[in-house]
From TrEMBL:
Molecular functions (GO terms): transmembrane transporter activity
Name this protein carries in UniProt: Carnitine/acylcarnitine carrier protein
Ranges in a coiled coil: none
Membrane topology recorded in Swiss-Prot or TrEMBL: Multi-pass membrane protein
Similarity field: Belongs to the mitochondrial carrier (TC 2.A.29) family.
Localization terms from the record: Mitochondrion membrane
Length: 249
């Protein structure tokens, strides 16, 4: 039971077991900076295009509809790069070598082996369709949710502090992982990490998951994902806002 999990539970773990908790870490650590740079850049470019289309000033406020369109575009732009990072991360986390040990020394070795054994298309881009199905609506929610949350908590003097940025970013990060987006992510991960030919499509993955695990299989891991989302995206948005303010100054 979860209530029985204590520090003593971890103490008997040897070095190899502790190390296994961090499998695939290099892929998101190396990739998230690139991915969010692409995402924020694409979102900003799309918003500028929408403003320029009807002659508004570059800093004119965007409507929720415009932020949704710009967010969807940002999701589509960074989806191929995110696919590669998440494919490598997923394989690193689920594959086992001899004796249950990780088959790769690090994420780069995993990437090279996937290309060597399965080719670029299947090795790195298996599940690309499901990646797009998740990314586009997810980021279409992400950026508007941040702006709406920021406006809702805007103090009377109109000054946005880092605390407000953190809170609005955490809300946006949580909103973008709510079902059905999370359910799509579960299916995407299954497609990316399963043996070749296991699933024909995201619909096939959904049917097989429900048949073997019930509908709860589509929600597995939702709680930890939501708990992780708030602090992660709080720091992402606050970091972005503060960096941009510094550059503009």
């Amino acid at each position: 039971m979860c209530s029985e999990f204590t520090l003593q539970t971890l103490l008997p773990l040897n070095h190899a077991q502790v190390k296994s908790l961090y499998r695939g870490l290099a892929s998101p650590v190396l990739g998230y900076g690139v991915l969010f740079a692409m995402s924020f850049s694409a979102n900003g470019q799309a918003l500028r295009y929408l403003r320029n289309r009807d002659g508004r000033a570059a800093n004119a406020p965007a409507s929720v509809a415009e932020m949704t369109l710009a967010g969807a575009w940002a999701g589509a732009v960074q989806a191929p790069a995110r696919q590669v990072f998440e494919r490598v991360k997923g394989v690193m986390q689920v594959r086992n070598g001899a004796g249950g040990k990780a088959p790769y020394s690090w994420s780069g070795a995993c990437l090279v082996d996937l290309v060597r054994t399965e080719g670029v298309q299947m090795g790195l881009f298996r599940g690309m369709g499901s990646q797009f199905i998740r990314e586009v609506p997810q980021f279409a929610l992400y950026y508007p949710a941040y702006d709406v949350a920021k406006r809702a908590i805007l103090p009377a003097d109109g000054h946005i502090s880092p605390i407000h940025m953190l809170l609005a970013g955490g809300i946006a990060g949580t909103v973008q992982w709510l079902p059905p987006i999370y359910n799509i992510d579960v299916l995407k991960t299954k497609i990316q990490t399963a043996a070749p030919g296991t699933y024909k499509s995201i619909a096939d993955a959904a049917r097989k998951t429900v048949a073997t695990e019930g509908t709860k299989g589509l929600f597995r891991g939702l709680g930890p994902s939501l708990v992780r989302a708030f602090p992660l995206h709080a720091t992402i948005f606050a970091g972005y806002e503060l960096t941009m303010a510094h550059l503009h100054s």
